[in-house]
Amino acid sequence: AALGDISFTADLWSSKTRYPYFAVTVHWVARKDPLNLLSLCSGLIAFHRVRGKHSGERLARIALNITDRAKVTGRMGHWTLDNASINDTFMQGLQDGLKMHNISTLFMAQDQRIMCFTHIVNICAGHMTEKASNTPHSDDLDNYRGEVVTSGGGRDVIVLCCNTVCGIRASGQRINHFEDTIKLGNEKKWFKDGDKVVRVHEVQLLHNVRTRWDSVFLIGYRFLELRLPLDHFISVTRELEHLKMTPAEWSRLEDIIFVLGVCASLSYN
């Protein structure tokens, strides 16, 4: 049995088939035998497909139906949610709904809401990316010849990175040739850091995923990992020569990815 109030985490997301689902997880503290120690417990109580309107008021009604079925409405504590605007009305809907349920527990919409830490990190990373790269970049595989020059006259290294990925992935032959470059370069010991021979992992470049906040970090991290074969491949591929990065641009990209990596480590841990 739970000791005290029960807390909740919830999120609304879409499947690959574009069906929206509302997931609700409960968290509580209980005493565990045989030593009667306190233990933090959690469990998924709903994975509910949402049909129709996705307003905060409607999601609140769905949430109350879920907590009623789980028999935990009367012990409702805090809700951890992302910063979507509908969650303001969602929490108010819960407060109003609990009053209609004649539940005596004191539930205040503003006080009972906890902001999702990962989503806050997401917002911070987004602001940093916007400061580092103010040029819109496309995830269209055919759009790798776009403008990469910033208003200050330099080249936007994030756009340059994304355009290079698109340029290589736009052609099956280029993908194969790039993979062969890594394999052959390792065999022939082409790749060196100073005088030291470097063996590069045989991995693929990552493509932009707009729904993932850490997509720029993951793309850039992998791009840096493949710097040596990328320099070689771009140098011998005429269609991509305009995307070859200078040492200063590589250094700038390293700095950006380092900062985004701090956000990623906070989120992943």
Provide keyphrases for this structure.
zinc; alpha/beta; 269 residues; two-stranded antiparallel sheet; Nucleotidyltransferase, domain 5; elongated; 5-stranded mixed sheet; 2 domains; 8 helices
Quickly count the helices.
8
Radius of gyration: 25 Å
Tell me the distance between the termini: 29 Å
Global structural class: alpha/beta
Secondary-structure element pattern, one letter each: EEEHEHEHHHEEHHH
Strand order of the largest sheet: 3-2-1-4-5
Roughly what is the average pLDDT, rounded to an integer? Answer: 87
* Unreliable segments of 5+ consecutive residues: none
Q: Report the major sheet.
A: 5 strands, mixed
The rough form would be described as elongated
Number of strands: 7
The count of domains is 2
Strand content: 15-25%
Helix content: 40-55%
InterPro entries: RNaseH-like_sf, ZnF_BED_domain_contain
GO molecular function, one term: zinc ion binding
Subcellular location: Nucleus
Keywords: Metal-binding, Nucleus, Zinc, Zinc-finger
